[in-house]
Every structure is written in structure tokens, then in C-alpha cells.
Amino acid sequence: MKGWMGKFRALFLLGSLSLILSGCGVDKLSALKPDGYGAELLYDLMILSIAIMIFVFIVVMAIYTFVLIRYRRKKGQEDFIPKQTEGNKVLEIIWTVIPIILLLVLAVPTVQAVFDLAETSSDEADIRIDVTSAQFWWQFDYAGEEISTSQELYIPKGERVYLTMKSADVIHSFWVPSIAGKMDTNPGDNENTMYLEAKEEGVYWGQCTELCGPSHSLMDFRVVVVSPEEYEQWVNDMKNADPEATPDTQVAQEGQEIFQNNCMSCHAIGAQPKGVGPNLTNFGDRAKVAGILEPTKENIKNWILNPNEYKPGNTMPANLVNEEEAGKVAEYLMQLKPSEITPESAQ
């Protein structure tokens, strides 16, 4: 009896813990709270498939319970052998046709959703963005605009934004669960396409969902959804960003010189040629440093000095500058704010 009670307590504790933890998570990072056209399609398919499974479960359990009660061995019938029935065409037709109908109910909307989500851009006026994944960050190049960002993707509310995706190294996977489904990014010439269409303004989390190295779980990014008017302002501000602009303070000016001498071989600002590292045009507007750290001067300095401490396996070299120089570079980077449209303004 004691052993049975111990197992019951353990099972109850595990069930309670699972129920409590199911409510944990990050806002704007859930496929169960869709705020985009693609996410709504996928959510409806999930609900439909769950409803079908529940229906099948109830029917099977009802038949099982009926048979268990109706045909159980009764007292005094220990030696009784009931009539043996082999085959029943009516029943066989029923349990063959019903699954086919249920599969069709699920298959038709699924196929429709697949073709709908596979739509690609056919108009030069559409917003088209080239997405490049790398270990462990994301680059976003706006086609025809000469705008590049990293870690934060700005899009307008209510408009379809078409993405062309590839990888700079290994296979990654692009996923913004509250807005759309996921899509792999592959190395080489194999490009995949999808679109985003957000229905509400705000800042949405995205993640890599393909195991890609030791910092896979830290490969986060954000999609900043703003009004169409704010998006146009942001585009104009980014296009007019001057990489040679003189910072406001002496420390930042020294940091700019150090940055140009040590970091420009990998990074770019404004419409400068694309480097192997993230574009830093709007670094000062970012809500996160490296996608994971709070944007404080101390965090930026520590990231510059030892990036592998925060994202193991990334390719950014450490100790290119000393601690004092890193602080000056951090001061300069924090002043890179070409636009008033920021993630905070979209909240």
C-alpha cells in the first residue's frame, strides 16, 4: 500500500509540475498565440487535427467500454464459448470509410495551406528581404533599398514581406512562431522562400530551430512590426545613415577610429560593402546585444573582449583590442542610432 501511495504522489507531483510549467514562456514567442496570417493558418490546422484525434479517441473508448461490459464473462458461464464470427462486411466498410473521410477532412485544408504559404513575390513593388543565417546570428538585406540589419528585422503591419533565405555555413532554420511557420536555410545555392504577414504591431521573437552548433539555443532574433508609415520613415532613416558621421563625444570619436582600424574588415555600417560579420548600422537601436544581452556599455565591452564566453563556437575573434579600447568602441556603437523608430517604439 505504501509503495502504491508513493507512486501516486510522484505521478501527482509530476503532473502538477507539468501543468505549471506549461504556462511559462516568452511573450510573442508562441505558436498558440498567433498574430500573423501564416501562424493563424497553422494554428487552425493544429486545432482541426486535435479535434479529429479527440473524436477518434472518444469513439474508440466508447466501443471498447461497451464491448468490455456487454461481452464480459458472467458468473456461471466459465465454460461457455460464445458464437464465433469471422468477418463482417458492414463493420469492415465502416471502419475503412470513416478513417478515409477523417483524413480527407484534414488533408484538404492542409494542402490548401501549403499552397497558400508557398506564395512568392511577383511584383517589384513588394517588400523583399534576403535572409542569411550564420553561426550564430542573422543578417537581413532589404532588396533594392541598400539597407542591411542584423538580429532585428523591421517589417510593416498588414503587408506581406517576402523572404529569400540561405545559410553562410551550416543548416539553420528560421522561425517566428507568432507570425509564421518555419523554413530551413541551407548552405550553397539552395535558397528557400516564405513570407511574413503580421497583423499586430509589436516585437516578436524568432529563433533558429535546427541544431547548428554549441550556441544554437542562443541564436535568437527579433521581428519589429511597425505601422506602414513608421516603416517608411525607418527605411528613409536607414538609407540616409552616414557611416562617416562624427560622434558627439571625444570618447566615441576615439572609439570610431579604433573600430575602423580593427573591425571594418568584418563589419559594415550603412551601405558599405557587406562583411562576414553583422551589419552594425543601427546597433544603438537594438534591444539586445548579440541577440541575448542587455544593451549596456559594460555588456558591449565584455562581448567585444570575449564573445565566446557568451556564445561558444561563434567566429568573432577575441581580444582584438584592450579593455580601454573596447570601452571606447562600445561608446561609439551605442551612438549608432540613425532612426527614431526602435523596438521600444513598437511595443
Tell me about this structure.
Keywords: Copper, Electron transport, Heme, Iron, Membrane, Metal-binding, Respiratory chain, Translocase, Transmembrane, Transmembrane helix, Transport. Belongs to the cytochrome c oxidase subunit 2 family. This is Cytochrome c oxidase subunit 2. It catalyses: 4 Fe(II)-[cytochrome c] + O2 + 8 H(+)(in) = 4 Fe(III)-[cytochrome c] + 2 H2O + 4 H(+)(out). It contains 7 helices and 10 strands. It is of the alpha+beta class and 347 residues long. The chain has a domain of 97 residues: Cupredoxins -  blue copper proteins (Immunoglobulin-like), CATH 2.60.40.420. The strands form 2 sheets. It has a 5-stranded mixed beta sheet with strand order 3-2-1-5-8. β2 and β3 form a beta hairpin. α5 packs across α7. The mean pLDDT is 88.
Order of helices and strands: HHHEEEEEEEEEEHHHH
Gross geometry = elongated
User: In what range is the share of β-strand residues?
Assistant: 15-25%
N-to-C CA distance: 56 Å
What is the number of helical segments per DSSP (H or I, 4+ residues)? 7
Helix content: 25-40%
CATH structural class of the domain at 250-346: Mainly Beta
Which strand order does the major sheet show? 3-2-1-5-8
Task: Report the sheet with the most strands, covering strand number, pairing sense and barrel closure.
Answer: 5 strands, mixed
Feature tags:
347 residues; 5-stranded mixed beta sheet; electron transport; alpha+beta; elongated; Immunoglobulin-like; 16% strand
Question: Brief description of this entry?
Answer:
The protein is α+β, with helices and mostly antiparallel strands and 347 residues long. It has a domain at 250-346: Cupredoxins -  blue copper proteins (Immunoglobulin-like, Sandwich), CATH 2.60.40.420. It is 37% helix and 16% strand.
